[in-house]
């Protein structure tokens, strides 16, 4: 497979775009380097690069493209928005329709607000929780990514629950010091953090099903325990459902799992591929937001007709019968195929899957938290990644990113993917 044009483009990009990419996760740094494959066109389960190569897409743009590329219903909605003016700076009927759709699908979101990214959504839920409780500290879980606002770019020190230090240059230490990080799926560490800092905690922020160190489900009772201890401490529970909402069911992970937070942040899928974020929650908490309350949050493009109409169209597609059954069925097929070929070639892998999203970790160990995901074999994954790309299968260039199946994927796509995995494992097995 030739990548001459991708390589040339990367050289040009490096001159004008920092690192040659507009998001660090797109760089191939973590998989041994090289020019990232640049795409030109997407259609259904496929996209096509600038050298004319075709790929089955499991990246799905890091999640949003659950309908596949250029879905006709969404394309029609975006075209309508383009033809009728993309931004007014006034209320629109579309945003009311969309807010009602979200509220109906995720009932804990009694009131919502739209914005432009998941980062903004999470950042604002933290502000609202602080405004509501009059406290500053936040508990988050190691390895959960919540966008790039200051309070969530924080890493833990050593120990089961520790006050944070900045995880990025430019994040003030005083902001990080208000953030406590504990391991996911560790009830004792969480209880310990609440015991130590409970009276100062504004919110506990969690991905109810983790999507950022692979797909990791909470152990039984973990989310219930978070709710109980957080509420007893007088703090709020925030679910970051930027990845999870509408991924596993028509609604949030909270609806799938039957546990409700006080505030929820959304993004990705709800824009149908256009930029969007939203947050919402209990009415009395949301009433802290301007112009009703004292917590400020605003946006020139917030609720713009293009993103909202695209989002409505996306949810209409997802609401159709059989969508999540299709994702689950193909997910199960892919998992089975990869597991079988791994057994044949003695490849040390562990697969975490929930419905149409799965992660293939290069380890024999279970992966239930960030430390375990970090301890998987990145070098082996890097080689696997390149072998898959060369066979026209596009994954995220990260050892613990999820593979996302879309409704455009077919059984034939899954079979072709399993075949490519067989070839890759066969090649890798010779090196082990
Ligand atoms: N929260 C989660 C769980 C995410 O996965 C992401 C993005 N990967 C974000 C927040 C940030 O969203 P955005 O990139 O739209 O700002």
UniProtKB/TrEMBL annotation:
Compartments (UniProt record): Cytoplasm
Catalytic activity, EC: 5.4.3.8
Positions of post-translational N6-(pyridoxal phosphate)lysine modification: 268
Gene Ontology annotations of biological process type: protoporphyrinogen IX biosynthetic process
UniProt enzyme class: isomerase
Cross-referenced Gene3D superfamilies: Aspartate Aminotransferase, domain 1, Type I PLP-dependent aspartate aminotransferase-like (Major domain)
CC per GO annotation: cytoplasm
InterPro entries the UniProt entry points to: 4pyrrol_synth_GluAld_NH2Trfase, Aminotrans_3, PyrdxlP-dep_Trfase, PyrdxlP-dep_Trfase_major, PyrdxlP-dep_Trfase_small
CDD domains, per the entry: OAT_like
Pathway stated in the Swiss-Prot or TrEMBL entry: Porphyrin-containing compound metabolism; protoporphyrin-IX biosynthesis; 5-aminolevulinate from L-glutamyl-tRNA(Glu): step 2/2
Principal subcellular localisation of the protein: cytoplasm
Keywords, ordered alphabetically: Cytoplasm, Isomerase, Porphyrin biosynthesis, Pyridoxal phosphate
Subunit structure: Homodimer.
HAMAP family xref list: HemL_aminotrans_3
Official protein name in the record: Glutamate-1-semialdehyde 2,1-aminomutase
Lineage: Bacteria, Bacillati, Bacillota, Bacilli, Bacillales
Gene assigned in the entry: hemL
């Amino acid at each position: 497979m030739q990548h001459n044009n991708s390589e040339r483009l990367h050289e040009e990009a490096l001159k004008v775009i920092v690192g040659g990419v507009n998001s660090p996760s797109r760089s191939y740094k973590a998989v041994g380097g090289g020019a990232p494959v640049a795409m030109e066109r997407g259609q259904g389960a496929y996209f096509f690069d600038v050298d004319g190569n075709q790929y089955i897409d499991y990246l799905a743009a890091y999640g949003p493209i659950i309908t596949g590329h250029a879905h006709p219903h969404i394309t029609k909605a975006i075209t309508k928005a383009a033809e009728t003016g993309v931004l007014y700076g006034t209320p629109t009927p579309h945003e009311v329709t969309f807010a009602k759709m979200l509220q109906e699908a995720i009932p804990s979101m009694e009131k919502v607000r739209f914005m432009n990214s998941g980062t903004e959504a999470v950042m604002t839920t933290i502000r609202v929780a602080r405004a509501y409780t009059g406290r500053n500290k936040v508990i988050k879980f190691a390895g959960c990514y919540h966008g790039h606002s200051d309070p969530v770019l924080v890493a833990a020190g050593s120990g089961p629950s520790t006050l944070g230090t900045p995880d990025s240059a430019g994040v003030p230490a005083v902001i990080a010091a208000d953030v406590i990080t504990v391991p996911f799926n560790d009830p004792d560490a969480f209880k310990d953090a609440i015991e130590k800092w409970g009276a100062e905690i504004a919110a506990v922020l969690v991905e109810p099903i983790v999507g950022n160190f692979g797909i990791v489900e909470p152990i039984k009772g973990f989310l219930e325990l978070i709710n109980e201890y957080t509420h007893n401490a007088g703090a709020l529970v925030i679910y970051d459902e930027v990845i999870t909402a509408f991924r596993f069911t028509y609604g949030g992970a909270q609806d799938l799992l039957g546990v409700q937070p006080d505030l929820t942040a959304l993004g990705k899928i709800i824009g149908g591929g256009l930029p969007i974020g939203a947050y919402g929650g209990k009415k009395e908490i949301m009433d802290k937001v301007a112009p009703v309350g004292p917590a400020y949050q605003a946006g020139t493009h917030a609720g713009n007709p293009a993103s909202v109409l695209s989002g409505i169209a996306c949810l209409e597609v997802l609401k159709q019968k059989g969508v999540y059954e299709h994702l689950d069925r193909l997910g199960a097929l892919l998992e089975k195929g990869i597991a079988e070929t791994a057994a044949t070639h003695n490849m040390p892998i562990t697969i975490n899957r929930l419905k149409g999203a799965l992660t293939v970790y290069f380890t024999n160990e279970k992966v239930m938290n960030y430390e375990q995901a970090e301890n998987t074999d990145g070098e082996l994954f890097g080689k696997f990644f390149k072998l898959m790309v060369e066979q026209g299968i596009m994954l995220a260039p990260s050892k613990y990113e999820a593979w996302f199946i879309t409704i455009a994927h077919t059984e034939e796509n899954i079979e072709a993917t399993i075949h490519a995995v067989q070839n890759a494992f066969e090649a890798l097995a010779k090196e082990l």
